[in-house]
Write a structure and sequence with these properties.
The complex is a heterodimer of chains A (about 240) and B (about 280). Chain A has about 240 residues and is mainly alpha-helical. Helix content of chain A is about 80%, strand content about 0%. With about 280 residues, chain B is an alpha/beta fold. Chain B has helices spanning about 65-75, 105-110, 125-135, 140-155, 160, 175-185, 205-215, 230-235, 255-260, 265-270, and strands at about 5, 20, 25-40, 40-50, 55-60, 85-90, 95, 110-115, 190-195, 220-225, 240-245, 245-255. Classes of the chains: A mainly alpha (about 240), B alpha/beta (about 280).
Chain lengths: ~240, ~280
């Protein structure tokens, strides 16, 4: 059966309601933090702001700590409540989602480190248009995936799953134009490689947002769509399979 | 993704929940349109389900949902209760258990029952297990010894009592008494074992031993378990039937029922929500 965002607040045990609510809240807080990390890492690169890049790099520790806290809380709920059905799926989805959010945090700090080396180098950076474009795209995916999680919105989650394909295409074409820069000017190879690493990190953020969206579908429908072909997925197939 | 094919069987008055499709060949017990009332007050309403052979099927549901009533109907424990009226049919291996040619004592040998509170007879451990066999008669002392040992072994009790078979059954702990009662039931070689809250009066260790026993017995017979303990149903059963107010709400593979139930009523019950 499908569940809604207030399904988890109807237990006879109010304490249990609170524990599950708290898990969701903490996940959203962590999601907000990593989204900000990505946004600031890209801003640091584009503005050439080394101080902001350092801040992002150092903030990764906070993201890691949030993962540990949420995982701890999930372990406690599993041990004490032995959740079943949608409660169990919520806890599993949260555990999986924190792992992906933590990885997004790592990608943000990777972007920040590459931005720092580019800024310190002082050379003109090429490919920023592509970086800005893809970063806006994957940040929207991440925001949508988190919104879908908060609202138990499978339609929005499916959109995110489909978005990931176009990010992959954009990444492919950005890589091709960066290769051209490298061929044109061998002195540009170092800085262009750094930009390539940044694009790679952003593309990975898209993959993680895609994972988050898949967990929303598992949470709401009890259907595991990992490793399924996105082209075969729409609301109808979900309701047939769920 | 559910692997098991589901088939929704229409019940006469209202649509029932999804019912797992157990083929007649694979079922030990087939219950069809069973309606039962105590003094005119309905306790079971138009129940239709098949219980698969050599599997553990759990009946869950709130107090008064009819799960124990259903269990008792399976070996005709309602026969002597004049306030009970019923219609529908129950078949054991294809044969109607209420057919005139079915002797109720033979039915109860084939369909054994274990209750919530252990009820050993006031006699020795050995005599408890041998009791049913002696009633049937015709067994040599040696054969009797063999079967008693086999049954105590099957009930995972032999090692604990082999040196004191002549001691009173009352000298055993609650968990041991329950396993003794199971041994007594197994001694007459039943095909089905009905367990009505068999571990609810036991400590956690004894409970785990009973659960382990249920698992080990499944290779030999069909088990039907009534329990209030949801984790227990999730741990030991292969199939779970959720009953509510005398109706079968949902029946499916335990893995599906406890991770992704089809109906909100089931979800609410197993996750402890207000209906």
């Amino acid at each position: 059966m499908d569940i809604t965002s207030d399904t988890h607040s109807q237990h006879i045990s109010r304490q249990f309601n609170q524990e599950l609510e708290e898990l969701k809240t903490q996940l959203m807080t962590m999601g907000g933090l990593v989204e900000q990390q990505i946004q600031e890492a890209v801003k640091a690169l584009i503005d050439g702001d080394s101080r902001l890049a350092e801040k992002v790099r150092d903030n990764d520790r906070a993201v890691n700590e949030m993962q540990l806290t949420i995982d701890d809380e999930c372990t406690r709920v599993l041990a004490r409540r032995q959740p079943a059905a949608s409660d169990l799926r919520l806890v599993l989805a949260v555990i999986r989602a924190t792992a992906d959010l933590e990885r997004i945090g790592d990608e943000a700090s990777k972007i920040a480190r590459n931005a720092l080396s580019l800024i310190e180098n002082g050379t003109q950076v090429r490919g920023l248009v592509e970086v800005r474009h893809i970063s806006e795209h994957v940040r929207k995916m991440l925001r949508d995936a988190l919104t879908a999680f908060a609202r138990f919105d499978t339609e929005l989650a499916l959109q995110v799953v489909h978005e990931d394909e176009s990010v992959d295409d954009e990444y492919g074409s950005a890589m091709r134009s960066l290769m051209t820069f490298m061929m044109e000017d061998s002195r540009a190879i170092g800085p262009v490689l750094s930009v390539m690493w940044i694009l790679r990190a952003l593309e990975r953020v898209g993959d993680h947002a895609d994972n988050l969206a898949e967990y929303v579908i598992y949470l709401v429908k009890g259907l595991d769509i990992r490793h399924m072909d996105p082209d075969e997925l729409d609301e109808n197939t979900l309701s047939r399979k769920g | 993704m559910s692997v098991q094919p589901f088939q929704t069987m229409p019940v006469s008055r209202r649509p029932a929940g999804p019912i797992i499709d157990v083929s007649p060949e694979a079922s030990s017990l087939e219950i069809e349109n069973l309606t039962l009332a105590y003094a005119g007050k309905p306790a079971l309403r138009e129940l239709t389900l098949r219980i698969p052979r050599q599997r553990v099927t759990a009946f869950i549901g709130p107090s008064g949902c009819g799960k124990s009533t259903l269990l008792r109907a399976l070996n005709r424990l309602h026969d002597l209760n004049e306030a009970v009226s019923w219609r529908g049919s129950i078949r054991l291996e294809g044969q109607d258990i209420h057919a005139p040619e079915v002797a109720v004592d033979e039915l109860r040998r084939r369909v054994g029952m274990v209750f919530q509170a252990p009820n050993p007879f006031p006699m020795s451990i050995y005599e408890n297990v041998a009791f049913g066999l002696r009633l049937r008669g015709g067994l040599s002392r040696r054969r009797l010894d063999d079967i008693v040992e086999w049954a105590l072994n099957a009930a995972a009790l032999w090692d604990e009592v082999k040196d004191r078979l002549r001691a009173s059954a009352w000298s055993l702990s609650g968990g041991q008494q329950q396993r003794l009662v199971i041994a007594r039931t197994l001694a007459v070689r039943p095909e089905v074992l009905l367990l009505d809250e068999p571990a609810s009066a036991l400590d956690p260790i004894s409970t785990l031993k009973i659960e382990e026993l249920i698992r080990s017995l499944k290779s030999q017979l069909t088990l039907v378990l009534v329990t209030h303990n949801m984790q227990q149903a999730a741990r030991v059963s292969d199939y779970t039937a959720f009953l509510h107010e005398g109706e079968l709400v949902e029946y499916g593979p335990t893995d599906d029922v406890f991770t992704n139930p089809r109906l909100a009523r089931t979800e609410n019950y197993i996750t402890g929500r207000m209906a």
